Amino acid sequence: MREKGTEERPGSGAEPTVPDAISAPDADGTPRRTTRRFPRITRDTARPEGGGRAAPRGAPAPARQWPILAVLGVVGLGLLLTALDAFRFGTILIGVALLGGAVMRWMLPDVGMLAVRSRFTDMVTYGALGIAIVLLAMMAQPKPWLEIPFLDDTLHFTVRT
Predict the structure, then answer these.
(1) Count of CB atoms within 10 A of residue 126's CB?
(2) Of 45, 100, 110, 127, which is least surrounded by CB within 10 A?
(3) Are 11 and 22 in contact (CB under 8 A)?
(4) What is the pLDDT of residues 1-57, one digit of tens each?
(5) Where are the beta strands (DSSP E) in 2-161?
(6) Is pLDDT at 137 greater than 50 in this prediction?
(7) For the range 134-141, what are the long-range contacts, defined as Cβ-Cβ under 8 Å and sequence gap of 24 or more?
C-alpha cells in the first residue's frame, strides 16, 4: 500500500517525493517522480577529472598507469636511500617525486590513478607536500643546507651540537 507523496520502485522501497517534480520517463514509459533528498544508496561516482587511462585500452595494466608507477618508483628509491643512511638525498627524492606528480597532473590530460580529486586539488596537494618535504630535508640537522632565520626563534627548544 502506497502513501500519498511516495513512489515504489523495484528494490528502492518507498521514498517521499516532491509531488510536482516529474522527470524523464522510466524504461517502461511511466513518468518518474524525483526527490530533492540525497539517495540512500550511491549508484555511481564521477571519475576525477583526468582520471582516464594514460595509455590505450589494449596496453597492459602497468603501461596504462605509468604516471602513478613513476611517482611510486621514485618514492621507493627515496625510501631505499633513506634506509641506506642517505637521509637527506632520499628525503629530497621523495619530495621531488611528489613535485613530479603535481607537474604530471598539470600537464597530462589523463594520468590514471594519479588523479584522486579535481586537477586543482591534486596539484595543490602534491605540490605543497613536495615543497614541504624538500624544504624540511634541506633544513635537517646537522649541517643544514638551508637556514631560515625566523625558525631559530621558533625552534629554540631543539638541541644544537
Answers:
(1) 23
(2) 45
(3) no
(4) 555 555 555 545 555 444 445 556 666 766 666 666 766 776 766 666 666 666 777
(5) 6-9, 13-16, 22-23, 32-33
(6) yes
(7) 134/91, 134/92, 134/95, 134/96, 134/99, 136/91, 137/87, 137/88, 137/91, 137/92, 137/95, 138/88, 138/92, 140/87, 140/88, 140/91
Torsion angle defined by CA atoms of residues 53, 51, 69 and 121, in that order, rounded to the nearest 10 degrees: 160
- Output the nine-digit C-alpha cell for 38: 540525497
CB 79 within 8 A of CB 91: no
Residue 7 has φ and ψ, to the nearest 5°, of: -140, 145
125 burial type by CB count under 10 A (0-12 exposed, 13-18 middle, 19+ buried): middle
Half-sphere exposure of 111 (CA within 13 A, CB side): 26
**Domain residue limits, the chain:** 7-38, 64-153
| Rounded distance between C-alpha atoms, residue 54 and residue 70, angstroms | 12
What distances in angstroms separate CA 69 from CA 77, 84, 86, 133, one per listed residue? 12, 22, 23, 20
Which pLDDT belongs to residue 18? 46
Contact of 103 with 131, CB cutoff 8 Å: no
